[in-house]
Amino acid sequence: MDERDWLILMKLYEKKNITKTAQSLYISQPTLTKRIQQIEKGYNTAIINRGTKGVHFTPQGEYLAKCAEEMLERFQSIKETVLNMEEEVSGTLRLGVSNYIATHKLPRLLGQFQEQFPNVSYKVTTGWSQEVFHQVYHRDVQIGIVRGDYQWPGPKLLLFEENICIASKNKIELHNLPSLPRIDYKTDTLLLQTIDQWWSRTFSQPPFIGMEVDKGITCKEMVLNGLGYGILPSALVDDHPDLYKIDLTDEQSNPLVRKTWMFYHEDSLKMKVMKEFVLFVERLNF
């Protein structure tokens, strides 16, 4: 079986329909049917049964379909290795980045890297930092850029730090915080834990949540319009000098900071494109 056959199995298992699979792969139904028959002939077993509601995989076919993603990743890895044996820096960089980084930092970073290495392509996935951490740990991506201090066993690079602060449109007093409307938002578990721990050390009563929104940037917009205060990483509010800000501190009066890291595996540096990207980021001023 070649790479195309594994792709056919993966798509067919996803679609459970010959017509939809053929359309997604831009091939004709007869061509697709012939390839399936050849796969069955190669393994001397039926892999699908056709029914009125689509196709159903036999146990043997289901096993092969579940192997398809792993095999396709292996083909991609082989291609990247062969490409990186050449002097020219080329291949595909698989990046996992936090939502904030994807919006505010990554486009400029990749734009500058692309100018220097135009033959590199990219596969980017985004999500919460905890999700990205698991992606790079399990090697679903080659590089992970996360916000927060995760326990990473391999090489890592500190990209930047930011204070965690209270932001309000108007001046507020810290001791009045429990009675003022707070705008809460969804974010990574580590940041939530840091904020909750600070609150429990500082106040004996819970916060008054006046509004809940989807993400930090939405919280910032609500704060700008005077709808309450937010507890946010400073990167979100540094470009708004008119906002009133109070940096959070720990028991020793040190600022509470949130660090952004780049994680990767040591053995991945054998690939030229990975080595060049890591060196490029080391020289870059975030």
From TrEMBL:
Domain HTH lysR-type stretches: 1-58
Highest taxon of source: Bacteria
InterPro entries (alphabetical): LysR_HTH_N (IPR000847), LysR_subst-bd (IPR005119), WH-like_DNA-bd_sf (IPR036388), WH_DNA-bd_sf (IPR036390)
One family name in Pfam for this protein: LysR_substrate
UniProt keywords, alphabetically: DNA-binding, Transcription, Transcription regulation
One term of GO molecular function: DNA-binding transcription factor activity
PANTHER family: HTH LYSR-TYPE DOMAIN-CONTAINING PROTEIN (PTHR30126:SF78), HTH-TYPE TRANSCRIPTIONAL REGULATOR (PTHR30126)
Family per similarity comment: Belongs to the LysR transcriptional regulatory family.
Protein name: LysR family transcriptional regulator
